[in-house]
Amino acid sequence: MWIASANGFVLIETAEEGKGNIMIKAFCKEDFVGMVDQKRISAGKDPCGYFFAKIAKQELADILVKLVKSVDYENFEDAISSHPIQVRKKDVYVRFLKDVGALY
Q1: Contact between residue 79 and residue 85 where contact means Cβ atoms under 8 Å apart
Q2: Which end of the chain has fewer CB within 10 Å, C or N?
Q3: pLDDT tens column, 58-74
Q4: Chain centroid, CA 100 distance in Å
Q5: What is the average per-residue pLDDT within 17-30?
Q6: What percent of the chain has pLDDT over 90?
Q7: What one-character DSSP code corresponds to residue 38?
Q8: DSSP tag of 33
C-alpha cells in the first residue's frame, strides 16, 4: 500500500519476520516525519533503495488515525506547495492524480 501524505510517500508491506509486523518504507528519511521516530529508521537503504522501519500493525493503525486527524488543509496540492521539504514532490503528486483520474 502506498500512502501519499503532506509529509511524503511511504510504502507499507508485511514484514517477513511475523504476521503482526509491517515494514514502512520510503526513499528519503524525511518522509517518515510524523509517523515513525527517526531513531527507528534504518541507517541505510535496502536493496530496492528504501529506508525502512519495522512496526506492529496496531502501531500503523494508530499512526494512520493520527495522520487523518492532522489534516488541516482544504487542498492537498496547496498543502504540498507550502511544505518546505515536500514542495519538490508536488509535480509527482499532480502527475499521479492525473494518471489515476485517466483510468476512469
Answers
A1: no
A2: C
A3: 999 999 998 888 888 88
A4: 18
A5: 88
A6: 46
A7: G
A8: T
